[in-house]
Amino acid sequence: MNVNNEIKIFGGSSNPELTKAICKYLDLDQGKAKIAPFPDGESFIKIEDDVRGRDCFVIQSTCAPVDGNLMELLIFLDCLKRASARRVTAVVPYFGYARQDRKDEGRVPITAKLVANIISTAGADRVLSIDLHAQQMQGFFDIPVDHLMAEPVLVKYFKEKELKDLTIVSPDVGNMKTAARYARELGGDLAIIHKKRINGKEIEAEEIIGSVEGRNVLMCDDMISTAGTMCGAAKLVRERGAKNIIAGATHGVFAGPAVERINAAPFDEVIVTDTIPLSDDVKKIKNLKVLTVSKMLGEAIKRIHCNESISCMFKGE
To answer: Which CATH class is domain 7-149+294-314?
Structure first.
């Protein structure tokens, strides 16, 4: 891709390895920037390349530490805008705060909308992200949003495994559409877990609608956070006679007791992508495999720069 003079790709400190992989796919040198803290903890960023009139992309997942990575993204955007970049795209592989997308009780914020507003205010001309927790989040932005799905990356891996006697299990009702798409792509049966809430923090998998006895089970979701729902579902399907149990997710958040829960659950394999870098603690998860979304993001960046269709990436065009 011989566009070094037209396009610049910068990476924040949240996921440097993903940025390097994207630049390698595009055969581009990564943009130079100085990122350092002031003694009082404030972030300082200086762009060290000429970006005047160029198409600039900032790759920064707003994963933990969420507020620090978000602030770094905002400063990057402002810095590029003030340096006269022609267009600035915020590439946010994992979009933190996406779950706070509605008022489900009184006197609470819609933080997802707030974050969308401040990203626009900071100088982003468009946003590129993967598997937002809720599709309607795209409407929170007053700038274009390119929403990618990691499903093709996961499906390709599962097809290569040639899984027989496959049942796709949705760990809850809200994940039914996702499970149905995987069932259609992989040619498996479909089952769903009915669960009940014990209290504000605990949910118990109660019943399976569908059969899993003697079947290989695949459970897929947009993220694994504290892993309570997925681990509960895994234990239930094992009790009902499932053979191999595989968990797949785009974003490996792995918050709180997730690592302990997953290692105690009967998973034969746990698959995530590299939208979020893995901590040393997370690397202790048994049978964990990480798939890369760098090629998909790189292709999307190239298409945005060349004013080509993004949706065609998922239609085989």
So the answer is: alpha beta
